[in-house]
UniProtKB/TrEMBL annotation:
<dbReference type="InterPro" id="IPR003695">
    <property type="entry name" value="Ppx_GppA_N"/>
</dbReference>
<comment type="similarity">
    <text>Belongs to the GppA/Ppx family.</text>
</comment>
<feature type="domain" description="Ppx/GppA phosphatase C-terminal">
    <location>
        <begin position="317"/>
        <end position="483"/>
    </location>
</feature>
<dbReference type="InterPro" id="IPR022371">
    <property type="entry name" value="Exopolyphosphatase"/>
</dbReference>
<dbReference type="InterPro" id="IPR043129">
    <property type="entry name" value="ATPase_NBD"/>
</dbReference>
<feature type="domain" description="Ppx/GppA phosphatase N-terminal">
    <location>
        <begin position="29"/>
        <end position="303"/>
    </location>
</feature>
<dbReference type="InterPro" id="IPR048950">
    <property type="entry name" value="Ppx_GppA_C"/>
</dbReference>
<dbReference type="InterPro" id="IPR030673">
    <property type="entry name" value="PyroPPase_GppA_Ppx"/>
</dbReference>
<dbReference type="InterPro" id="IPR050273">
    <property type="entry name" value="GppA/Ppx_hydrolase"/>
</dbReference>
<dbReference type="Pfam" id="PF02541">
    <property type="entry name" value="Ppx-GppA"/>
</dbReference>
<keyword id="KW-0378">Hydrolase</keyword>
<protein>
    <recommendedName>
        <fullName>Exopolyphosphatase</fullName>
        <ecNumber>3.6.1.11</ecNumber>
    </recommendedName>
</protein>
<dbReference type="Pfam" id="PF21447">
    <property type="entry name" value="Ppx-GppA_III"/>
</dbReference>
Amino acid sequence: MAQEKYAIIDIGSNTIRLVIYTRDKSGRFTESENVKAVARLRSYLNEENILEQEGIDILIKTLKSFQGVTRHHQLEAIKCVATAAVRQAVNQDDIIKAVQSETDFSIRILSEFEEANYGYLAVVNSTPFTSGITVDIGGGSTEITYFKNRQLIYFYSFPFGVLSLKEQFIEGDMPTKEELRELRSFLKEQFDQLEWLNDKRLPLIGIGGSARNLAQIHQEHIEYPFSGVHQYVMSKDDVEDINELFNSLEFSELQRLEGLSKDRADIIIPAVEVFRYLMELIDTKQFALSRKGLRDGVFYEETTKGFDLSVFPNVVEESFHELAVDYDINLTHAFHVSTSALLISKELEKLGLLSLDEQDDKRLKLSSALYNLGSYIDSESSHQHTFYLLSNRTIDGLLHKERVIIALMASFKNRNVFKRNVALYEEWFTKDELAKYTLLGAIIKVAYSLNATKRDIVETITVEEKDDVLVFSVHCREDWKPEQYQVEKQKKHLEKQLKKSVEFKFDS
């Protein structure tokens, strides 16, 4: 049976990109092909805002090359959207007609609101941020949004981007000190018009190629031990450090910088100047990267049309369900393991042996539901596979540190394995945090043992302390001998973390 596919062509001012999505076994669409061409259409928009014939020819040539790909995949559902370079062109009707007559595609020109709104949708549907400021700086425009409680409050589209800023303020490959002063003065004048940005003290979330390159460069610069840039977070000092690095290099050195696309070397500095000033204006110390942007926003809107729902109710829950389908997680079993883990943790809290906040509860719930996920690959080394899968797969709604915490707890086997897994990330955590996550991992391991036969027989768990021994009373609705056997094997991990003897009493 042929796979269902869907494609989006994004005609930007700097690049043109074709992305193909394929429906997987979970029923969701995932990116399967991503083809990029650097066209720099904004450079062919003259002073009269006419897109010159050379620019139109490059557009047609690029779309014809994409056409070979879409025909090969026998694609019919293709959305072709254009942003600032075409939107600002006074001859846009001629552009649309040329594309329609010479290619398989029909262009839809996005309004300023649509372009900003799609970026906002991508962020709220793929990151944990409930409130923030997004910035999507393209070649010919810059979209800013402010969202609060996951609702769009304000948006604005500025008619300048990295290419137009470069053309207007920087004559050579690298800016002079005077050119930088003029650029910064211009950005201040423009962004200060938006009173709703001032002192918001919310994360600035970058969308698009320039923001992605900034994150990649920083990761290379600090030898970041983690994979992926989506939901990567940098501090204000980090952004300043990279900016200083750029300005210390010759252009030839900048072109060779790891993490920076060579075609962006001459425009990365104007982009970073935008990010720097916005962080100052917002008064934020946090710059985050959303790898998902306009195309994903268009895609979310298109695939949720029938549900009258463009914002997912809960990003992490959506991600969990994707993992559940991809790795054949038994949802009933996962629910019971989570329930038992939460029961045990609450009982230990009553005794003053554990202190959890709301975020810890969420971590415990998700980690226990994902426990032993790696058995999908190999049951004998499931803990190793669990940590690898969860720490190396992008999980929408989880920042990188949070993903490591979930991976550590969901893969807990014993304290030594925990230490080996956390070794690369140890400086991210305090000793108290690591002690807590080790204990929660041990709790999850016991909770998993309490449902060893996947019969979901545990009904209640209570804990009391008698003569320095923690007595766990477990009430079951059926015979509990197999569960008792497994728990007796695994309780030593709980004893080591609690530094107390543990006794389990079962009844039915």
